[in-house]
């Protein structure tokens, strides 16, 4: 996501001819977009994206369980 944001900023700076980016090659300006594609391909292939999604789901599930236990007055089990 950071590569995409950086690419958009550099693209706007190049298009509007702002600062030193105006003299840079288009290849350098568009490089963050290629890096974003590489990052997303790696994240999907390695399972990073799925693992992060499962961590978010598990945390949300545990928070919901803890909230229900607090409402019932049950203390959280130690060691979990």
Fold and architecture overview:
The protein has one domain (2-72). The chain is built from three helices and no strands. The mean pLDDT is 91. With 80 residues, the protein is mostly helical. 75% of the residues lie in helices and 0% in strands. The longest helix is centred in the last third of the chain and has 25 residues, at 48-72. It has helices spanning 2-15, 26-46, 48-72. α1 (2-15) packs antiparallel against α2.
Radius of gyration: 22 Å
Largest sheet: none
Overall structural domain count: 1
Q: Name the average pLDDT.
A: 91
Structural class: mainly alpha
Low-pLDDT sequence parts: none
Helix/strand order: HHH
Net shape: elongated
Strand percentage lies at under 5%
Helical run tally: 3
Overall helicity: over 70%
The span between the termini is 33 Å
Task: Report a brief summary of the structure.
The chain has 80 residues and is mostly helical. The protein is built from 3 helices and no strands. It has helices spanning 2-15, 26-46, 48-72.
Please give a handful of descriptors for the protein shown.
80 residues; mainly alpha; 3 helices
